[in-house]
Amino acid sequence: MKIRLTEFSDNWALMYRQEAQFLKTIFKDDIIKCEHFGSTAVRGMKAKPVIDMMCIVKDIEKIDKFKEEMKKLGYEAAGEWGITGRRVFRKGGENRSHHLHFYQFDNPQIERHLIFRDYLRSHPAEATRYTKYKEELAKRFDYTSEYSQAKKTFVKEMEQKALAWFVKGGKLNVEE
Fold this sequence. Notes:
This protein is of the alpha+beta class.
């Protein structure tokens, strides 16, 4: 998929809320809560205009039973997509609009994602630094596969800063 970095949009929060409501009509009580994360969840950050949503569920194995229904609704199942215990659905084909990341409630990846999101929200200078780095990469790479691989080390370093911030008393802002 070609890289599409765009300016922050207030519409991303609305897109998240609408999709979260829609997903609850499909998964009903299987979803405990949803969270908006990734760059589209951080005011002011440039991002690929793809809403990253985390759906925290009671039982991750149940999510596999929804593959066919989700396909009929325009979602592509992507399996664990590199993280054990996760299920990912992508919506929109080459012009993706949403990535749904399903995690069972006790998966440690949940906290990692939320800490990183809230660190960036609480540290605008770091969000700006991350945006500038993404802009540099977008000039060097045409496709998200190359771009995503190139930013891994930078993101890991930022995640370590975020974790240190959290351990020292940083607060999570749980959305729902």
